[in-house]
Specification:
Blueprint (H helix, E strand, L loop, with lengths): L7 H33 L6 H15 L5 H32 L8 H22 L9 H26 L1
Helix pairs in contact: 1-3, 2-3, 3-4, 3-5, 4-5
Length: about 160
């Protein structure tokens, strides 16, 4: 008869705590970033509220800038922010779905990450439709998705470079 080194209940608890630790390590950053994206979709970061800050900064850097150039650069900065937000989101999802495994890059994992990026981008725009100073835009969903796709491409190239 074999003697048990570890009682069954202790083993189950160890597995449970390992799963909790894995959640904190991988899913918590994703969840917090989703909250950050949601916060960026509030009135605080509407075009009307960010324009004065951008105008002040740009007029300091380029005193002779025209109003049309200001509007163009403000729009460019805002779209770049969209790409950046969803680029980080895509990388966090890549990290989460990979789960620290040393396995090869998986198209299935990337597809799931992109599906979540698209769904969150669409829900973000839906949320903005209820904010009086914001507007929902399919263009923004496309820009957000581009950020997620870019993240998956960078993750692929990074992973491929590490294999060589």
């Amino acid at each position: 008869m074999k003697k048990r080194l570890c009682p069954k209940g202790v083993k189950v608890r160890m597995i449970f705590y390992r799963n909790i630790a894995k959640y904190w390590k991988y899913w918590l950053p994703v969840t917090l970033w989703m909250g950050f994206i949601y916060w960026m979709s509030t009135d605080t970061f509407s075009s009307q509220n960010t324009f004065p800050w951008v105008e002040t900064l740009l007029r300091f850097l380029v005193p002779k800038i025209s109003f049309q150039e200001l509007v163009f650069l403000h729009t460019l900065i805002r779209k770049t922010a969209h790409v950046t937000e969803y680029f980080v989101f895509g990388l966090l999802l890549f990290r989460t779905f990979r789960g620290g495994s040393a396995s090869s890059w998986s198209w299935r994992q990337r597809l799931f990450a992109l599906i979540i990026v698209v769904l969150w981008a669409a829900s973000d725009e839906f949320h903005q439709s209820f904010v009086s100073s914001r507007t929902a835009s399919a263009v923004d969903v496309a820009v957000d998705t581009a950020g997620g796709i870019l993240a998956q491409c960078v993750a692929f190239l990074w992973h491929r470079g590490r294999k060589k």
